[in-house]
Amino acid sequence: MSKGPKTHLKRMGLVVLGVVALVVVGKLLFTPGGFGRYGHYRPGAIDDEVQRPLVHETDASCDSCHEWDASFHKKGKHKVVSCEFCHGPGGRHVKDGKVVGHLEVQKGGEINRLCLRCHDGHVRARPQGGKVIKTVLYPNHLEKQAVETDHLCNQCHLVHAPLEYINAAKKMFPMVKEGENVQ
Ligand code: HEC
Ligand code: HEC
Ligand code: HEC
Ligand code: HEC
Predict the structure, then answer these.
(1) I need a labelling partner for 139 at 20 to 30 A (CA). Which of 9, 18, 44, 84 fits?
(2) For residue 50, what pLDDT band results from cuts at 50, 70 and 90?
(3) Is there a cis peptide before residue 139, judged by omega within 30 degrees of 0?
(4) How far is the CA of 43 from the centre of ligand 4 (A)?
(5) pLDDT digits (tens, 9 = 90+) for 71-93
(6) Which residues neighbour 113 within 8 Å (Cβ) at sequence distance 6 or greater?
(7) Which long-range contacts (CB under 8 A, 24 or more apart) does 67-73 make?
(8) Which residues neighbour 132 within 8 Å (Cβ) at sequence distance 6 or greater?
């Protein structure tokens, strides 16, 4: 059977037509409703976002039930660190004013790891001096306090107001000066 001239071009044309048809049908099938009404944008996206359940809370919403912890948190250096940073999203814990689940409470070595996420002086990229988060070199910091290096940060620092005990100790033992050992 002899093939006419330019058959290969016809075949190629068919393939191109097929691809174009696929694109047109695909666009019709998969473009979400409302897209393009106000430009390259889907207006329904806003409603979808509004419908998403809230998971984050402000510190104020924790305070009413956790007055004790909040009272320290409010007056200490950690007032600038939100409850949720250390304990996770409030939405896992309380819904419509009722307790529905548990939040993270670090224990043992997890406590040191949490604190050092912000206070580790070994992180060279962290700005030093001036108005920045104070850092310590670990375990040197513990050696300086003349304690075993397996001490946890919360054995000396109240986690919610980290200088609370330390300032109290300094008042009780006035001979202890800035930077000196309080043991
Ligand atoms: C810098 C991190 C940090 C911040 C900020 C923080 N917490 Fe904590 N919290 C901890 C750690 C670590 C523990 C467990 C160790 C401890 O209590 O010494 C804890 C313990 C608790 C506990 C006791 C849990 C138990 O089962 O004994 C409660 C309740 C609590 N926090 C509530 C709060 C509330 C409410 C806020 C905000 C007002 C807050 N926390 C802010 C780190 C933090
Ligand atoms: C409606 C009151 C209420 C609110 C609001 C509330 N809590 Fe609690 N929380 C509780 C109660 C009650 C417990 C003890 C639950 C238990 O022992 O089963 C608790 C326990 C905790 C614990 C210990 C671990 C756990 O989940 O049992 C942490 C940490 C905590 N809350 C942090 C927070 C933080 C942070 C917020 C704000 C985002 C908050 N809570 C808001 C009532 C509340
Ligand atoms: C999210 C980061 C963050 C985490 C996690 C964190 N801190 Fe802090 N910490 C801060 C900030 C911010 C300040 C306030 C800095 C300031 O006042 O100059 C602070 C202040 C302090 C101070 C007082 C420093 C001073 O002399 O002014 C101590 C001590 C401290 N934190 C210990 C801890 C301990 C212990 C933990 C673990 C329970 C911890 N921090 C977890 C951010 C953090
Ligand atoms: C044995 C007690 C003890 C333990 C454990 C301890 N600290 Fe301290 N920390 C102190 C004392 C005391 C000071 C205050 C020193 C001063 O006033 O010069 C201090 C000061 C700090 C400061 C402020 C440093 C500055 O430049 O002013 C930070 C940040 C800090 N500690 C973080 C931590 C972290 C993070 C841990 C856990 C890895 C930890 N500490 C464990 C006793 C302790």
Answers:
(1) 84
(2) very high
(3) yes
(4) 52
(5) 999 999 999 999 999 999 999 99
(6) 106
(7) 69/160, 72/158, 72/160, 72/161, 72/164, 73/160, 73/161
(8) 126
Taken as a whole, the chain contains a residue count of 183
Cα separation of 56 and 58, whole Å?
7
Q: CA-to-CA distance for 77 and 159, rounded, in angstroms?
A: 10
Nearest ligand (C-alpha, residue 98)? 2
With tokens 């043992």, the residue in question is 108
User: Taking a C-beta distance cutoff of 8 angstroms, is the pair 96, 63 a contact?
Assistant: no
Q: What is the CA(30)–ligand 4 centre distance, in A?
A: 58
Q: How many CB atoms lie within 10 A of CB 123?
A: 11
Written as one letter, the residue type at 42 is: R
pLDDT digits (tens, 9 = 90+) for 61-73: 999 999 999 999 9
Tell me the chain's radius of gyration from C-alpha atoms.
31
Average pLDDT over residues 46-72: 94
Structure tokens at 44: 């329904």
Average pLDDT of the chain is 90
Pull the structure tokens for residue 102: 């548990």
d(CA 51, CA 74): 32
